[in-house]
Amino acid sequence: MQKLALSLLFFAFTTAIFAQKQEPYEFKEVKRLAATPVKSQDQTGTCWAFSSASFLESEALRLGKSEANLSEMYVVRHIYRQKCENYVRRQGTAQFGEGGLAHDLLNAVNTFGILPESVYPGRKDLTAPLNHSQLEKELKSMCEEFVRQGKEGKLSPDWLSKVDGVLDAEFGAVPPTFTLDGTVFTPHSYRDYLGIKPDDYLTVTSFTHHPFYSTFILEVPDNWANGVFYNLPINEFMRCLHYSLEQGYTVEWDADVSNMGFSAGNGLAIVPEKDWKERSAAERQSAFKIWEAEKNVTQEYRQQLFDSQVTTDDHLMHIVGMLDESHSGTYYVVKNSWGQISDLKGFVNVSDNYMRLNTISFTLHKNALPADVLRRFGVAAPAVEGPTMRSGATQSTKTMPRQKAGSSVTPEKLRPSVNKVQPTTPATPSGN
Q1: What is the C-alpha separation between 270 and 334, in angstroms, rounded?
Q2: Helix (H, G, I), strand (E, B), or coil: what is residue 32?
Q3: How far apart are CA 381 and CA 246, in angstroms?
């Protein structure tokens, strides 16, 4: 009888586990902050500009301004020029490409201001998708020639004007002023009208190869501008994300998406416990549709994948809310820049484990950080602005989504493949 009882108990347990694994993901909104409509970066590697512009558009909404549609290409044009100058002055040894990081847009807005897209669309044909592949090749070839001329003492003093000529031909000349709703603005006065103060933002990260609670220049190729990162232990790092969203501030996100757990087409990002190569055809078919357990993510495992270049900074997006998933707890609402793909129309639901493992950094307003974190870094917070909830934003009075117990699989048991699997996504842009 005892054996029969144990057998029945085991059968009931395994049946429950099987049934649970066949259940779909179920999300309940915890918080959704105001954000502008999803755009597409098309076939460019300028996600850093699209996501950071979206981030500033949400900041303007938070500050009580009407919805703005900022020109990503205005910033991209200025950054290309800075990259050319940096490449030539460093004698061809600097990174050159379409990619960048959030601080590139903030630095450009600080120096050059910002324009609405209606004033500066930054393309000759408004019906054609953005594609900078030929522009990048032309600029790099031109800069390599400038480097050669410089080494021979033959570089013309007006070499940057030739770069400007190429950029004007691609993006259009920059207007010194424009009129919006009857008011004449410059790029700088429009930035100030929106209430954007680029110096009020900083970037946090979490890596063990530098001391925690210190600042350092993160060693990734797209950090060509030598941006400074604030280093935190992973739990403090994630606490900052939660605190920011709870206080009504959205967050700019730099992450790795070239792995089997990210599917923009399904609007989901997870850290699957079971590797793709070990799955049956049926399991592959149901991926991202039927709930599955995730790997446990520790500080050590996160560092391991970064050091082995499995986790890289290949895409930037915009975090605009939090969800509670019925099986596993906290998820985050992320606005992508690949157009309105998937049933979520361009948004992706990202698990807490995915954030812990695949995040390179968060960029956020200083007031969005806990006071004790700012004190540890010796950063003075700006004057309290009083975040304003805009129409279209929702804010729940519920408690934070619960956090389920971690997986029984430990990082030491994992043997992650170095070869990444690109997610199958319609019209995925090249680069980041």
Answers
A1: 13
A2: strand
A3: 17
Question: ∠ CA 216-335-248 to the nearest 5 degrees?
Answer: 75
> In whole angstroms, what is the distance from residue 237 CA to residue 243 CA?
10
List, for residues 102-143, the tens digit of each pLDDT value.
999 999 999 999 999 999 999 989 999 999 999 999 999 999
Q: Which residues of 56-77 are buried (b: 16+ CB within 10 A; e: fewer)?
A: bbbbbbbeebeebebbbbbbbb
Q: What is the pLDDT of residues 255-310, one digit of tens each?
A: 999 999 999 999 999 999 998 889 998 888 899 999 999 999 999 999 999 999 99
Instruction: Report the distance separating Cα 249 and Cα 56, nearest Å.
Output: 11
- Token pair for 302: 């996160």
Q: What is the dihedral of CA 29, 34, 37, 41, to 10 degrees?
A: -90
Q: Which domains does the chain have, with CATH numbers?
A: 35-413 (3.90.70.10)
Alpha helices in 195-324 (DSSP H): 234-246, 281-286, 299-307
